[in-house]
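Predict the 3D structure for this chain.
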Amino acid sequence: MRSSYLFTALLTLGCGSGSSASIQPTTDQPTSGAANEGGQTSGGAASGGSNGNYNAGSGGSAGSTAGSGAANSAAARISAKLLHTCAIAPKKITVCWGDLATGDFGQLHPPATELSSVSSGANHSCGLAIDGSLTCWGDNRDGQTDAPPGKFSSVTSGFSASCAISAAKSIECWGAGADNFLAPNDQALAVEIGLNFVCALGVDQTIVCNGASQLGQLAAPSGKFKSLAVGSNHACTISLDGELSCWGAGKQGDVDTTENPDERVHYGQSIAPSGHFVAVAAGYAHSCAIDTAGQLSCWGAGKTGDNCASDLNACGQAAPPAGQFQAVACGTSHSCAVASDGKLACWGSSSGGRSTPPANW
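Done. Predicted structure below.
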């Protein structure tokens, strides 16, 4: 797949690159989307990072489910990927910001179409219009923005491919490697794309993954789940009782198994904390989750932020601000979250403006 070469190039740029963040909303029913959420919480605004006003409830309601339209949740209204983030602002306009280090393909210029959800890819993004149709923009060298016609309930953007769940709950994928992504489940409530693999949350609430397996990406846990988040080489899910499970890269902890720092993949991003959670997000080498009290926890690369120029593990993307939150999104070296009062906080690498949302909310 072309996407593997793209990601190697991004890592060569240093920790300034942002990565996969498929973050699914979590409610009493299975959920999916570009970001995660639980029920609205009360509490103070996010502290630290860059703040902007984000109307999480605009155009949708907290607690919507994948089958009936995860797009209509606060969770599906913010998404981070490699170098950029997109979100649906209070006036129902979609805004994108971030770094153009890998090229300007128009990924920061979403259409004027009113969207109910958005999902950021590597150098492209896709959104679900309020009428259920799809729209994509940005890099189309692999056909990743050639969205099919029809009505859909959710959409997700990967590195060089995209997938969506149709109104009939079937999985449709397009772009690089799409033939290998086809229907890990016959029907699904959610689908998420990693670097060289894809996972789906079936209508029976079990998880099935297809694709590369050398890092354990396909070792999804057994049981029933309500949320799914896929990073570049790892994935996380939330069980029906709120417990986290992660698999793939980083399961053995924070270890360097290569002499080439650009090829390092194990940062402990699959060692999930204990507790009960309502939202989870997976980035390149870190993960974040929101617990039932609205508090953020992050693990994996980036627990400190003192040497981001040369070390992905020191960009601060896994050092979240205090406060209470309802949605979270993870990139490679930055993260963003929506606070309970609707403000947006981003932290981690500021290179190229990836942790600085636009002022014109």
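Residues 1-72 have pLDDT under 50 and may be disordered.
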